[in-house]
Structures are given as structure tokens and as C-alpha cells.
């Protein structure tokens, strides 16, 4: 059955005769991409952005352009066709990803990817928005209204800007605080260079607005009797020759009031027409002394002649700058000096009144009494604060550097005053009257005050001060609780010694006072 020596499997190759060999056809080349500029719509948590870019650019180029607008790290941004989906490859071109004019994609990134961070070590500003809100504003393309936090009534807003919605939306919290304002508006009704009624209303809403403030930040200003008398007596006595300025130190009360303990008169150029501050070599030492006493700057006071306006334009601007620097409770005190000519007229009227005693008519005397009361009301010390909205305008640098009128503040840009566009703000419209009272302080003002033009204190005054204290049999702690004395000692003693005395005077206890007493007696020549 089987052939021996032959395999059943044939090893002979098949014939290739009449066999046609076929090859695979080459695939056609893709058509070349025509370079053209397209607009890509990118939707993100900060809103929709329209990016103009060439379709030959890569996804990485698109991300870099987008990152420059939202101020985020480009390495943390992904572009995807749908939210929270895998992003396009960075090296792919827009044409390869089938991007066309008007294509809508989505950008994914976190809020913590901001490339701009608030400056470290920046001094705390009472009217500046917190650093975390400033950082959030940069990432959400909105401008922090750093002077906000108060509406026209003067009430502090409870909301401090913790809003998580896009800038195109508003909620009751951010509407009340007015801390966030849109920096850029992307109106869908027209191109960027166009305008419409809605855009005009938006621009109008960004314009600084002023309304009369009905409530005050400082509920009540209490001034030490001895400090007020020490300043007022000199200012009134020499008012025809010198006008004076004083910086008020004290503390804020839990009832949103102020207790002012003493008035420091810095170096100043005093004349009959006005006064100007000079460089103060004790500026830093005074800050340390106030801190040792548990106080800070709470106001300033100046003297002026009788006038119609409570504050001039320059005085209101300076008061606003002080409030920006030292806080919402900072108060301005104005001491109106008596008019000598008015007193002379009053004497003449009194003489005429005596001559009219025989007359039965009481009208002249009653009219005279009313006029005297009105003149008296114009004298004395008054307290004011600049409204929060006027402070905001001054801080933004909108006001002119030089003011032409005394009762009007001129601005570089138009502002809305009671919904009326103007470049002039009445000074009185931007002021809030603060009630002023007095109290008995345990700190005295018996030592001669420094930096006055008439007299300069010396060690002879220190000797007299110590002798008078000895006659009164008062404790040494009470003797050094005199603010003008501590200020004088800052000029002649080591600062650390004076600060120790100030801390003892503030606390009311001194364990080792013999050394301090010996130093003062040695300076006074009482050894």
C-alpha cells in the first residue's frame, strides 16, 4: 500500500507559472492645512473667553494665551472637549483637533494655581481688602474695591468677599459689600470696540458714587479734660500769633467709641495765617511710647479762626488720609478760636442795650441774645469724620492735588453725588459730625509741653515738677504719670528707661522705682 523510500509529503515547490503578483496601493496624502485665524471659545470657572489664534498653533500655544488672561500657571491648565474630560494633546495643532472658527472647549484648573500672590510683609491697612480676597480677585478677573466694606449709611458690611460664583453673577453678600467689581466686560451684543445701553449702565456703575452718610464710624469721642485744656488754653491765648496742630493718642472702646488720653504737639511752623508740620525726630519714639501706654493714634486737632465751613478742602483731604492710615475710628477735632473783633462788637451792643433799658419793647434785647448764642455756637471744639465714600474717592487719587476753593473738593474724574454727575464735591456733604465729651484721666498734663514757640522745657522745669510733687506728697508713680514729662524725657534719656516708666504708669504698679527716681533727681540737681 505504501511506497517504500518515499514520503507521503511532497517537497516539490508549486509552480509559479501564470500567477500574477498583486501589491497594496499607497494611501493618499492628507490635504495641506490652510493657515487661517480662528476664534476659540473657552469656557472656564471664570466665564467664557474668546481667544483669537491661528489654526496651525498647538494646544500648548492656546493654553498659554488663555493663561495670560486669567493669571494662572499654564502647566496646570488642560483643554478638553467636555468638562472634566481628558484634555487634548499639547503637541497637537488646532487643525488636527478639528478646531474651527467658533469651536467651544473647556478649561480645567484650580483656584490655587494663581501666579500672583499678595506681597509679604505689607503693612496692614485698615481700609485694604484682606490678602486672600486680593488673590482671589486676580484669578477671577475682578478688581478689589479695597475701600469697600461700608455702604452710604456707614455700617460695616458683614460680608468680606467670600463669594465663589463667577464675576458675571452677583449675590446678596457681594452686592452689600460692593467689594468686587467687574474689571472687563464681554458684551455679547457687539464687538469689543462697540457700545450699547447695557455697557453704558455698566460704566456708570463703576463711577465713584457719593451719598450723605447717616451713621458715623466713631460713635462718641471722649477727650481727657486736662489734655483738652492744655491744648485749648495755649491756642486761644496765642491764637492771633500762632495756629496749632496736635496728634491725639488714646484707645478704642468696645462700644465703637474713642477715649483720647493726651495730645502730642509735633514740630510745626506756626503762624497767624496757618500751620504746617515739620519733620519730627521723635516720630518712631512716640509710636513706641504710645504702645507702651497701651494707646495709638486716634485723631488730630487743629485751631482756626471763625469761618463758615467746618473744614476746608485741604483739611478734609488730610483727615481722610489719616483715616486711611490709622483706621475708621480716627477723628478730626477743630478748635474755633474766639474772634476779638466780634467781642468788641458785643461790648458795643451791650452798651447800646443798656441805653435802651427804658424802652418797653423787648425785641432788640431778645434778638441780641439770639445773636450772641449763635456766635457762641461757632466757637469751641467740634469733632468730625470724613465719610467712607469720600475717603474711597480720595484714596483712589481722583481728587486734584491743589484745591482752588475752600468749601469744595475738585476731582480729576466725574463722580456721582446723589446720582448727579459732577467734578465738585461740597466738603460739608462728605463730613459726619461726631459727638464729643470729656472725662477725667489718671494721666496728667502739668509739665510744660514741648515743641511750642513760646517756651522750651528744661531740667529746671523737671526740678520744679519734682518739688511740687513732693509738696503734694504724691507717689513717684503718680509723678511720672504726666504725659508731657514722658515726652520731654524721650529727648534727654535712653528710650528704654522712658518706656519702662510708661509701662509702669499704664499698669499702675512699679516694683523697683528707686533707680528711676534717682535718675530724675540727679537730672534735676536734687541730689
Q: What value does the Rg take, in angstroms?
A: 39 Å
- Please, what is the CATH homologous superfamily of the largest domain? Cytidine Deaminase, domain 2
CATH architecture of the largest domain: 3-Layer(aba) Sandwich
Number of strands: 19
Largest beta-sheet characterization: 8 strands, mixed
N-C termini distance: 151 Å
SS content category: alpha/beta
| Total count of helical runs of at least 4 residues | 15
CATH class of the largest domain: Alpha Beta
> What's the overall geometry?
elongated
Query: Share of helix among residues?
Result: 25-40%
Strand order of the largest sheet: 18-15-14-13-9-10-8-19
- List the uncertain runs: 1-22, 112-161, 175-183, 360-365, 374-378
> How many structural domains?
4
Average pLDDT confidence is: 77
Beta-strand share of residues: 15-25%
CATH topology of the largest domain, anyone?
Answer: Cytidine Deaminase, domain 2
Amino acid at each position: 500500500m505504501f511506497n517504500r523510500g518515499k514520503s507521503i509529503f511532497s517537497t516539490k515547490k508549486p509552480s509559479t507559472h501564470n500567477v500574477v503578483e498583486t501589491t497594496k496601493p499607497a494611501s493618499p496624502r492628507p490635504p495641506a492645512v490652510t493657515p487661517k485665524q480662528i476664534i476659540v471659545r473657552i469656557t472656564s470657572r471664570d466665564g467664557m473667553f474668546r481667544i483669537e489664534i491661528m489654526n496651525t498653533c498647538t494646544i500648548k500655544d492656546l493654553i498659554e494665551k488663555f493663561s495670560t488672561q486669567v493669571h494662572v500657571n499654564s502647566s496646570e491648565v488642560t483643554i478638553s472637549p467636555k468638562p472634566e474630560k481628558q484634555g487634548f494633546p499639547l503637541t497637537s495643532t488646532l487643525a488636527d483637533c478639528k478646531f474651527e472658527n467658533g469651536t467651544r472647549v473647556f478649561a480645567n484648573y484650580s483656584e490655587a494655581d494663581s501666579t500672583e500672590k499678595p506681597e509679604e510683609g505689607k503693612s496692614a491697612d485698615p481700609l485694604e481688602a484682606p490678602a486672600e480676597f486680593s488673590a482671589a480677585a486676580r484669578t477671577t478677573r475682578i478688581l478689589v474695591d479695597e475701600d469697600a466694606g461700608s455702604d452710604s449709611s456707614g455700617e460695616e458690611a458683614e460680608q468680606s468677599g467670600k463669594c465663589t460664583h463667577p464675576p458675571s453673577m452677583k449675590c446678596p453678600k457681594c452686592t452689600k459689600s460692593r467689594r468686587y467689581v467687574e474689571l472687563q466686560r464681554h458684551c455679547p451684543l457687539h464687538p469689543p470696540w462697540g457700545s450699547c445701553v447695557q455697557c453704558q449702565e455698566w460704566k456708570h456703575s463703576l463711577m465713584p458714587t457719593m451719598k450723605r452718610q447717616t451713621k458715623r464710624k466713631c460713635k462718641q469721642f471722649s477727650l481727657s479734660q486736662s489734655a483738652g485744656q492744655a491744648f485749648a488754653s495755649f491756642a486761644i491765648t496765642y491764637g492771633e500769633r500762632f495756629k496749632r496742630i496736635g496728634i491725639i493718642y488714646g484707645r478704642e472702646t468696645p462700644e465703637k467709641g474713642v477715649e483720647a488720653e493726651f495730645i502730642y504737639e509735633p514740630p510745626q511752623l506756626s503762624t497767624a495765617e496757618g500751620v504746617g508740620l515739620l519733620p519730627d525726630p521723635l516720630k518712631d519714639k512716640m509710636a513706641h511710647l504710645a504702645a507702651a501706654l497701651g494707646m495709638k493714634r486716634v485723631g488730630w486737632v487743629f485751631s482756626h479762626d471763625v469761618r463758615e465751613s467746618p473744614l476746608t478742602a485741604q483739611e478734609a483731604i488730610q483727615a481722610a488720609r489719616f483715616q486711611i492710615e490709622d483706621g475708621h475710628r480716627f477723628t478730626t477735632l477743630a478748635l474755633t478760636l474766639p474772634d476779638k473783633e466780634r467781642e468788641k462788637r458785643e461790648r458795643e451792643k451791650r452798651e447800646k442795650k443798656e441805653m435802651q433799658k427804658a424802652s418797653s419793647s423787648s425785641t432788640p434785647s431778645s434778638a441780641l441774645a439770639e445773636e450772641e448764642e449763635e456766635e457762641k455756637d461757632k466757637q469751641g471744639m467740634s469733632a468730625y469724620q470724613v465719610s467712607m465714600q469720600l475717603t474711597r474717592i480720595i484714596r483712589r487719587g481722583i481728587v486734584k492735588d491743589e484745591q482752588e476753593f475752600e468749601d469744595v473738593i475738585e476731582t480729576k474724574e466725574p463722580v456721582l453725588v446723589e446720582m448727579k454727575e459732577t467734578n465738585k464735591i461740597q466738603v460739608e456733604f462728605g463730613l459726619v459730625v461726631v459727638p464729643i465729651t470729656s472725662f477725667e484721666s489718671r494721666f496728667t498734663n502739668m509739665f510744660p509741653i514741648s515743641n511750642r514757640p513760646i517756651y522750651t522745657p528744661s531740667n529746671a522745669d523737671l526740678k520744679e515738677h519734682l518739688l511740687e510733687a513732693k509738696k503734694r506728697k504724691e507717689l513717684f508713680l503718680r509723678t511720672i504719670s504726666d504725659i508731657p514729662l514722658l515726652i520731654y524725657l524721650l529727648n534727654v534719656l535712653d528710650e528704654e528707661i522712658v518706656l519702662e516708666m510708661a509701662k509702669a504708669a499704664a499698669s499702675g504698679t512699679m516694683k523697683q522705682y528707686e533707680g528711676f527716681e534717682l535718675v530724675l533727681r540727679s537730672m534735676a540737681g536734687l541730689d
